[in-house]
Amino acid sequence: MQFPIIFALAVILDLAAGEINFFPHPVKIIGKLINFLQEKLFDLHSFICGLAVCVITIFAAGLAVCLVLYFSGCNCVIQIYLLYAALSWRDLKDETRPVLFCLMNNDLEGARKFLSRVVGRDTKNLSEVEIIRALIETISENSIDGIFSVMFFAVLGYCVNDSYGAYIFVWIFKAASTLDSMIGYKTFHEFGKAGAKLDDTLNFFPARVGGLIIIIAGGLKIRALKIFIRDRLKHSSPNSAHGESSFAGVLDVKLGGGAFYQDKFISRPFINESARDPEIFDVIRAWNLLDASSALFAFIVIFLACIIFC
């Protein structure tokens, strides 16, 4: 079975099933490895130790994928699973849906509780508008590292090696993403710098390509493109505001702004500042934009893979 078909089936499986929890997910296995290295072997204040955790984790992820593919004879079911497990298209909507349902039922406490599971900011005192804004920001930001980056590295890896490349590249990226989320330098400072910088580097091109894809999927509005170009660097991360600014431009809503993290207020500029505050129905519009842009990106990947294969 050729890669374009495997990729398409993985995307369909992700949309149909979402995350399957009845056996260990590869990301959870990577997380356990990071926890082991962090807790048992290394000094949490040392950049060198953090770099060692990063190198070991990335090497282990790549090696594990190679061994699984080799001993399975590049079984197509294994290949589909490796791509499916890396995608978070359906899962991103599933994780944000309970927040919207609570908002629609005027249950702010419930919305804050469910939102706390998907964002890093403090949610206990957020207003309805702040909850909606955080929800759309989560959808937009995670569209990059949960969907577009995975697709980007799948086709890039396939270009490098049509047998193993897509799966190795995807899981090296997922390992870097897990390192950043677990021991990123915002919490672990020197220890987490290597993992965080690697994640920033790997997301650099997907964030910019993904931002443009979102704008194209949203109707290629000139105003949205201008907002993307103007506001895409309004974030401490070099990549995070690309998804946010493109969503803000297409939906014509105001995102960003400061928030409390662990009881400390972190100031951030607004994105698309002159626009209106988002409302409940804008979350559904954000889901629709997520679907349209992800489908477009998937089509581009399949098209490019077919060209390479031919």
Compact summary:
The protein is mainly α.
Strand order of the largest sheet: 1-4
Which word captures the global form? globular
Counted by DSSP, the helix tally is 13
| Radius of gyration over all CA atoms, rounded | 19 Å
**SSE topology string:** HHHHHHHHHHHHEEEEH
Strand residue content: under 5%
Average of pLDDT: 90
pLDDT < 50 runs, ≥5 residues: none
Q: Portion of residues in helices?
A: over 70%
Assembly form of the protein: single chain
- Sheet having the most strands: 2 strands, antiparallel
What is the strand tally? 4
What structural class results from the helix and strand content?
A: mainly alpha
N-to-C span: 14 Å
Keywords:
globular; 72% helix; two-stranded antiparallel sheet; mainly alpha; 4 strands; 310 residues; single chain; 3% strand
Structural write-up:
This protein is mainly alpha-helical. It has 13 helices and 4 strands. It has helices at residues 3-17, 26-41, 47-71, 76-86, 89-104, 108-115, 128-160, 165-183, 185-188, 193-217, 222-231, 240-251, 280-309; strands spanning 255-256, 259-261, 264-266, 270-271. It has a two-stranded antiparallel ribbon with strand order 1-4. A two-stranded antiparallel ribbon has the order 2-3. α5 (89-104) packs antiparallel against α6 and α5 (89-104) runs antiparallel to α13 (280-309). The longest helix is centred in the middle third of the chain and has 33 residues, at 128-160. The radius of gyration is 19 Å and the shape is globular. The two termini are 14 Å apart. The mean pLDDT is 90.
